[in-house]
Each structure stands twice: as C-alpha cells, then as structure tokens.
Amino acid sequence: MSRKQAELKLDEQQKPKEEWGNGLEFLFSCISLSVGLGNIWRFPYIAFQNGGGTFVIPYLIALLVIGRPVYYLEISLGQFRGGGVLRAFDLAPLLKGVAAGQVLATGASITYYSSIMALTLRFLLASFSAELPWSSCRPSWGSDCHDGSSANASGKMSPAQLYFEREILHELPNLDDGVGVPNWQLVACLAVAWLIIGAVLIRGIKSSGKAAYFLGVFPYVVLVVLLLRAVTLPGAWSGIVYFFKPQWQELLNPLVWYAAVTQVFFSLAICFGTVITYASYNNFHRNVYNDIVIITTMDSCSSIIAGCITFGILGNLAKQTGITDIGSVVKGGTGLAFISYPEAIAKFEYVPQALAAPSAWAPASYASSATNSANVPAPAGP
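Above: the chain's sequence. Below: its structure in token form.
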C-alpha cells in the first residue's frame, strides 16, 4: 500500500472532532438555514416581479429536479469527507477553485444578511411604542399617504410603505446632494446584529445547535398567525388568486425560469458551502435521506405560506386604493416584505404590539441562522 493510499484510508477512518448533539440538532439547523430569508423575504418579491402564479410553477419544478438532488449531493459529500467545503473538494483537486468561490460567495452574502437583520431589529424596537408607528398616516407624509379611510386613495401609498421608505431607510428623492450620512439607529442595530451572531457562535455547534431549536420552530408560529390574519382581510383572496393563477404565455419566458432556478439555489442555500459544512458534523453512517425530504418540503411550504401572506396583503391594499391590477399596488423589490408584513400586523385590532415584536424577530432569527451557518468553523482535517 502506497503512502498516499495509507493516508487516504486513515483519513476516511477519522471522525470530526465535534458532532451534533443529536439528529434533531442537525435537522433543525438545516431547517433554520434553508428555510429562511430566501423564503419569507426574497421569494415574495421575486414572485411579484415575475407574475405571481407564473413563477410558482417553474419554482416547484426546479425545486424537485435541481434543488433536492443537489442538496442530497452536498450533504452526502460533507458527511463523507467530515470537513468543510475546502477539504471536501480534495476529492477533485481541479475543482478547488469552485470551493474557494463558494467561500467567497458566502462571505459576500452574510454582509447583506446582517444588514437585513439590522432592519428587522429596527422594526423590533419600533414595535414597543404605544401605537405602531406604521399603523396611521403622519402629517409629515402629506397627501402621499392613505390609511384606508379615504374614498379616493388612487396613487397613494400605505403608512407601512411610507414608514419603511422615509422613516427606516430615509430614502432621498434624488442623489443631487449625495447619499447622505449613515443613520445612527441603523448602524447601532447592525452592531447588535453582529453581537447576536457572535453570541450564538461563541461555542461552535454546541451553542448554534441548541439555538437551532428556536430558530427553526419559532418563525413558523409567527408565519401561521400572519397567514390567518392575512386571509381574513377584505380583498385578500383576489391577491392570493393572483399568486396562484399563472399567465400561461409567460411560462415560455426564459427569464422566469432563470429566476425560479436562482430562487431555489438561494432558498435552499445550496452551492454556498454551508450545507457541506453542516453535514461534516454528522455521524459518518447517518441516513440523511429522510432529513433531506423534510427540509426541502418545509422549504417549499414556507415559500408558499410567505407568498400567500404577501399577496393577501397586496389584495387588501388593492381593494383600499381601488386598483384592479395587483401587480401595480406597491413598488416591487427587496423591501416588499418590509411593507406587507407590518401592514398585516397593523390590521390586528387588539394589541398588535404583541405580535409585532415576535414578527420582527422572526426574520431576524432566520437571518441569524443563515449568517451563523457561514461562520461555523468546519471540523479540522487530519
């Protein structure tokens, strides 16, 4: 036996220095990673940009044909090698550049994940006020605002949208005078977000594994409550029908399929190296097939629930403003979730603050779990 073969045999017999406390820690950690911001934040606005139901069909097809097999491949690779993404690709030295690219992509993604956490923490602080600040129009917003009491609300924006754009982001009408200075409140929230990440990661998987029980379960409680409220609003069902009713001719648009495939990769967090790292802490002989079925199924269900909430709120806003086209109710984009979810919370008649705080924390916990996964160190190789 050559020296290289002996080293390979010894390498295969080595176990990671650390393993998950039990199988549930691995399962919930993967759920909190894969079922996250890609579902409750990104999926609704991507679906909104691509015609609602037109996007759902290619998304589900891509999830089954591409997402689930690649997820299985990455978990199997990480569990077999017992190391992080760089060590996993030692099997094919020619592909080490791919592994390095995944590490760089993850490093880039966690910067905006933490920024999203900062925005949710900002909403969390605002939710402790006696009256939710996005529940009614402010005098400073002038005639641009409607709160549902005006008969003619065409061309106006909801308080939730104006609050997000003008009070949270402090958007400027133009850049003639520059981009302005950083907002100290958002900077402070960003610092707190990184402190939370550090607190969860301070003991590696021993702490992040325990945190996964909360990060993987609690947001579902909030999503179900918001869904029940969203579907009971006037006009909500017209928005939900828009979400599920496809425009068949758009299925021939390659850009819709491209967006669907991209969403699957983003949502499941595949090809970022984090799934490989998580699986490296598994027992070598663990059967992960059932875990993969559960994770990918919950991922798609979370996306559908988030879509129903968002489009239900858009249907309600369309009824209030008298707009018949759901696609033109609000400005689409990355801020859509920060408009629709607060709008749903403001519709609660009794103590909306009781739900506003956990609802603001739900996406923050999702973002925290996703960012944590990028920072959990992989087991050291032999």
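The first helix runs from residue 3 to 13.
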